[in-house]
Amino acid sequence: MKEDLYSIKMRSARNTKHISGAERIILEKDMGLSVQQLVTRALGHSKGKSDFINIKIKNIVKQDIEYINPLDIRTVITNDYFEGRECALKALQKSGLSAETSHLVLNMLKDCHTMRGAILFEINSRERLEADKKRGVRVTNIDWSFNVKQELDKALARANLNNNHVKEAVALASKVCSAPGIIAELCWSDDPDYTAGYVASKDLGYMRITKLKPFGSNNGGRVFCFDSSKASIEKCIEYLQEKITLVNRVPVINNNIWV
Ligand code: AMP
Asked: Which residue has the least CA distance to atom 7 on ligand 1?
């Protein structure tokens, strides 16, 4: 690849409250279009029109890039969010959390909103490890590799999943699950219009659950479950926040499964 690469980060707020954020790794020729798309997102968000938009663009050293595999995707269709949350609890347990810890993780998201980053939760001590609890840990420098983007769009479109929510979340979860010490992730959006969410782990893959919260609720976020017996917290946070990571394969997408 001869062209220069850039990381582009957008964050926006309204009355100092977080509205939207996005990370991309782009080719120089796509810079103008990407900036335009991110500004449009910040101004047209269902959480409100941003009155502050910050865009940061930085050249990337190609030798620093780590290529990772994606988590495979499956969708579980649930009738309502109660069923969805039951399914999430089972998935967290399959990923290695105890029943009690899984409930704690789920309850944390019920009370969470307007964080820019994720809760980093230590599963043995059951403590939150983020230095700034209001902000959380923000995963950056993650995107799909350029040579899989077209094929990815086609594969997601065949499964009716070709939207920014899914595309960005699968890339992010793939990075999170390859971080040192991370056991699983639980996510549902704080966007009031978006009720789907997921549980992700290395063994489970990306398990998309169609209903994880009531429509109209602005509670949501992400919990990264960390096991300190497996890695140091510094290494984990450095990987999540700094490592430049591109997902270089199209995931396997499984058909919809009813609970
Ligand atoms: P979204 O799926 O974009 O609606 O994000 C839902 C929530 O997940 C946000 O409010 C943040 O708390 C968290 N989040 C979003 N993007 C990231 C990221 N890059 N790293 C860590 N947490 C994030």
From this structure: 221
- Strands of the sheet containing 127-128, edge to edge, are 127-128, 119-122, 221-226, 182-188, 197-201, 205-209, 73-77, 253-258
For the chain (length 259 residues), average pLDDT per consecutive 10?
90 94 94 97 93 97 94 96 98 97 97 92 97 95 94 96 94 98 97 94 96 95 98 98 96 82
Q: How far is the CA of 151 from the centre of ligand 1 (A)?
A: 25
- Please say whether the dihedral angle defined by the alpha carbons of residues 182, 186, 192 and 195, taken in this order, is positive or negative: positive
Beta pairing class for 52-59 and 221-226: unpaired
Return the residue whose CA atom lies nearest to atom 4 of ligand 1.
189
What 3-state class would DSSP assign to 92?
helix
- As a whole number of angstroms, the distance between CA 197 and CA 207 comes to 8
How many A from CA of 83 to the centre of ligand 1? 23
pTM score: 0.95
Q: Cβ distance 69 to 247 under 8 Å?
A: yes
Provide the pLDDT for residue 113: 83
